[in-house]
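Re: Re: C-alpha cell formats

Sure, here are both.
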Amino acid sequence: MPSENMSSMLTNVKNISNETTTQHIQEQRKEYEDCLSCRLIGTATFWGLGTYTIYHSYAHNPNLSRGFRLGLAFVGIGFIQIGFYRLLR
C-alpha cells in the first residue's frame, strides 16, 4: 500500500512540474514577439535561400543525378515555406 501512495504522489509532482513548465514557456512566448522589420528580413532571407537553392539545383551542374536535383529542389521549397511561416507567425 505505501508504494501505491508513493507512486500517486510522484505522478502528482510530475503533473504539477509539467504544468508549471508549460505555463512558463507560454509566458516567455507572450513576452517575446518579433517586430515587423525582423519578420520581413527573416522572410526575405529564407525566400532568397530557397530561390538560390532551387536555381542552383538545376542551373549549374547538368551531371547531377535526377534524385539529387529533386532533393535540392525540395530543400529550396522547404526554405520558402519556412519564410512564409516566419512572415505569418
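Second one below.
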Amino acid sequence: MLLKSQEHLSVLKVIIITALLIIFTSSLSVSTDVDDSLAYIWPLPAQFSSGNDTLSVDPALCLSVSGKGSGLKIVEEAFERYKAIIFEHEVEGVNSHSVFNNFRKRRSRGFDIGTLKIVVHSDNEELQLGVDESYTLLVAKNEGLSIIGEATIEANTVYGALRGLETFSQLCSFDYDTKSVLVYKAPWYIQDKPRFAFRGLLIDTSRHYLPVDVIEQIIESMSYAKLNVLHWHIIDEQSFPLEVPTYPNLWKGAYSKWERYTVEDAHEIVSPKGINVMAEVDVPGHAESWEETFNSFASNLNPRTVVHNWLGGGVCPKAVAKGFRCIYSNQGFWYLDHLDVPWDEVYTAEPLEGISDPSNQELVLGGEVCMWGETADTSDIQQTIWPRAAAAAERLWSRREAISTGNITLTALPRLHYFRCLLNRRGVQAAPVLNKMHVNLATGFGYDCRFNKLLHQLFQSHLPFPLSTVSMLPFSITSQQRLKSEKLKSVDDPVLIVSKQSSS
C-alpha cells in the first residue's frame, strides 16, 4: 500500500512539472506578442508618422542646443537625466570602459544618431498655467549629408523641449542581442501639443506623511506621462505638518516631530522640474470647500473663480454655463484611492462630457486625478497612482478623436501595458494594469486559472479515484489541512489539495 502511494506521488510530481512547463511556455508566447501597428508612445502624440527603418543611438550621445533658450540650464539637466534613462545598461565610470564602447569597437561601425539637437525659441522659463508645451520631433536616418546623424527637437519653450525629450526617450529601446540602443520604425516625425493646459495629480500628506524624496519621485514619474501639475494637499484637520515661521506652533499638529516639512523641504519640492507644484493649505481644515461652494453660492462667486468638480458628474457643464472655469476630478472615476475603478473607466472619463458649445469647452482647464491619503502611504502610493493615472494622462494630453474611437482594449490597453513596464524599468513601482482582474481570476496558483483546469484533466486520467476539486495554495494552508499532511515542512510551501468526490 505504501509503495502504491509513493508511485501515485511520483506521478503527481511529473504531472505538476509538466503542467507548469506548459503554462510557462504559453505565457512566454503571449507576453512577447506585440502589435507592430501601434505606436508605443504614452500619451499618444497629436500627430505623427513613422517608417520601417531601425536606427542605432550612440551611447556617447551629444547635446546641441540653439535658439534664444540655448543658455537655460533646465534643458541640459533634463538631457543628462534622460541620457541616464536611455543608456541605463551602460557601466558607470569612464566611458572608454563601458560595455557600449567595447561593443562599438568590436563592431567597427558608426551610429545613426550621434547628436540630439534641441532648438528652444524662447529664453523665458517661467512656469505658468497655459505655458506652451508644444514641440516637434524628427528622428531620421543620416542620408550621407552629415558625418554625425542627428535627432531634432524644436519647441517654443523649455517645457515643450522637456515633453519632446520624454517622447524621444520612449522611442529608444535597448536591444539585448546587439547590446545597443535602437529606434524602431524610423523615420519618426512628430508634431505634438497637449489637449488641456491643466493635467494634474493630487497627493495628500495630511492623512499620511510622505517623505520629501518620495514626493520628488512622484514628481519625476509624473513627467513620464506628461502630467504637469502636482496638487500638494499639505494639511487638513488630521495633521498640520508644514513649518510656518510666523506661526511656529502650527506644525505641532503634525503626527510626530519627525513627520514634518521645513521651509527648506517645501522649497526643494516646488523647485522647477517642469512640473508646477500647487501647494494647498486649508484653514480651517478642508472647510467643505470647492464644489460645495459653487453649488450653494454660485451667484456670489468672483467671475475669475475656478470650480473644481470632484464630487460627481454634471458639475462642469453647469459651471462653464455660468462663465466659470472648471477642473474635472469626478470621484466616480478619477479618485485613485477607489481601487475598484478599473483602467478603462479612468481612460474613458471625459472632462468635456455634456459640454457641446466650443466657447464653454474652452473654459474647462483640464483635469486632475486624486490620490487621497486615507488608505495609502509611502509603502504603496506609487502602485496606487500608477498605471491608472497614466490612463487619465492620455485623456488629458491626446486628441479626443484619436483615443475615443475603436476598441480601446486593442488600441490603448497594449500600449498601457507597455508603458507600465516602462515605469517599472525606470524604478516606478507601478501595479499591473489589470491587477483587479488578476486578483479575481486567480484561484490560488499564480495568475492563470487555466492551470487548475489543466491539472484536473491530467489528474483525472492518472489517479485511481475521481476528482471534485484541484487547487494550488501558494502561501497558506489551514490548521486542519496541516494536521492531515504529515510531510508538510513549511506553511509557505505550495500545497496541492486533492479531494475525493462524495459517494453520494
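The chain has a mean pLDDT of 80. The radius of gyration is 27 Å.
- S.
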